[in-house]
Specification:
binds guanosine-5'-diphosphate, 6-stranded mixed β-sheet, 32% helix
């Protein structure tokens, strides 16, 4: 069991308000190409030092209540499949509706950890009869106000008490890397997995202690040893709905969280689309390694430099995090399949890279002296030293006098300098500035 929380409930009960509160996103980013709000569906957060993901299942429902009842039911089922804790939201001002009773019935049978919250209880005077919600049979309702935040602390305390996994744990020494293949339907995910495993197929062992997480299998293939994280979408028969953004994101979240390096497969004939960029951003926000494989490369008419052009377009879409390996594959022609595994293994090594404080300072302080941070309103920003944080992914903290005035572009400048000197290809890096 991991720490994935889904918010379910009818439209307008306040799911997105709660989502914003839990993940502290002030503005959802609207993706102009797909017309959906990109950041509304998925966020990462922490409470008392425990990390978790939040999924707003309502992120893709628009329109009137009745038309989408079927859709809501489907989303509830998906939330049950793909998350660990379900927060079922009802509206304290409207009382119980038939749809609520329906959803409650599905949830009761799910065997998942459930939290019933009654929203829009903005002040004690609203504490009118929310006890009617006991009749949903989901235990004690927690009254909250998503808009002013009251009750959300209690909600999080309860959610955190259900967590079993410290999702940000530092890996043990001999950890075998976990890879997962993500991408839209039909890009060739099943095919590339078969290609990995077809030759020299060798399932080593079912991994001890992973009964709850049976989607990982250990392989030795092409000389590499790794765990492959299955995505639910691969196991199930595909259907039309799965083309929807919502479904492909839902199905990818857990796989991404359970892996070290994600292999994001694109279809060369379709190029990089909004959905691909969304999945890329999920990977990045989870601090996971990434390898982009542009599959079906056999179907592309090649002219000189076509892969260089192609790479440019992809990097334009994934900017500013562009230090990412891009491999052009053909599963059908068995081209560069080995390269994908080799690169994913290398990316995993990069993720674990630790740079000593003295090496960092020797290299970076000179660069900083030559290219100091821009002066802010006559104030000089002095960076004194830099060190890598002891986290499970690369993060660097620069100690300085006025951290609040360091610009994003200067932060990116430092990140690029780090990337020029050490191999962090495929790995998101965090840069922090702290007062000293
Ligand atoms: P969703 O469709 O379930 O995601 O619901 P929204 O978060 O979009 O909220 C629907 C409406 O309810 C919006 O107008 C919100 O401002 C309002 N709302 C959400 N939470 C609260 C709350 O705690 N108190 C009150 N009074 N209104 C709320
Ligand atoms: P998934 O939905 O991502 O698992 O995709 P599949 O592995 O089921 O592949 C979808 C279709 O693309 C199948 O018909 C495959 O044969 C085809 N396909 C996969 N890889 C390649 C490739 O490299 N080149 C070509 N031409 N077709 C491919």
């Amino acid at each position: 069991m991991g720490n994935i929380i889904s918010l379910v409930g009818r439209p307008n009960v306040g799911k997105s308000s709660l989502f914003n509160r839990l993940t502290q996103t002030r503005h959802a980013i609207v993706d102009p190409t797909s017309g959906v709000t990109r950041d509304r569906i998925y966020g990462k957060s922490d409470w008392n030092g425990k990390y978790f993901s939040v999924i707003d299942t309502g992120g893709y429902v628009v329109g009137s209540d009745d038309i989408f009842e079927d859709e809501i039911r489907k989303q509830v089922r998906l939330a049950i499949d793909e998350s660990d804790i379900i927060v079922f939201m009802v509206d304290g001002r409207e009382g119980i509706t038939p749809m609520d009773t329906d959803v409650a019935k599905i949830l009761r049978r799910s065997g998942k950890k459930l939290i019933l919250t009654v929203n829009k209880i903005d002040s004690p005077s609203n504490f009118f009869d929310y006890s009617e919600f006991y009749s949903l049979g989901l235990g004690e309702p927690i009254p909250i106000s998503a808009v002013n935040g009251s009750g959300t602390g209690e909600l999080l305390d309860l959610a955190v008490s259900y967590f079993t996994k410290d999702s940000e744990e530092i890996e043990e020494e001999n950890h075998i890397p976990s890879f997962t293949i993500v991408g839209r339907p039909n890009v060739g995910k099943s095919s590339i997995i078969n290609a990995f495993l077809g030759t020299d197929r060798n399932i080593v062992t079912p991994i001890a202690g992973t009964t709850r997480d049976s989607s990982k299998t250990r392989y030795k293939s092409f000389g590499f040893e790794f765990d492959l994280v299955d995505t639910a979408g691969l196991r199930k028969k595909k259907n039309v709905e799965e083309n929807l953004e919502f479904y492909s994101v839902m199905r990818s979240v857990r796989a991404i969280e359970n892996s070290d390096v994600c292999i994001l497969l694109l279809d060369a004939t379709q190029g990089i689309e909004a959905q691909d960029v969304n999945i890329f951003s999920l990977i990045q926000r989870n601090h996971k390694g990434v390898v982009i494989a542009v599959n079906k490369w056999d179907l592309i008419e090649k002219e000189t430099n076509s892969h260089i052009e192609y790479e440019k377009i992809i990097k334009g879409r994934i900017a500013p995090f562009t230090d990412v390996p891009i491999i052009f594959t053909s599963v059908i022609k068995k081209q560069r399949i080995h390269k994908v595994l080799e690169t994913a293994t290398q990316v995993y090594q990069n993720k674990k890279r630790k740079i000593s404080t003295s090496q960092l300072n020797d290299y970076l302080l000179n660069i900083i002296t030559e290219n100091p941070p821009p002066v802010y309103r006559d104030k000089m920003i002095r960076i004194k030293y830099v060190t890598q944080l002891p986290l499970y992914y690369p993060a660097f903290v620069f100690f300085c006098n006025l951290p609040q005035y360091v610009t994003d572009s200067y932060s990116r400048f430092l990140e690029n300098k780090i990337r020029q000197n050490w191999d962090f290809n495929g790995i998101p890096i965090d840069i922090f500035f702290r007062k000293k």
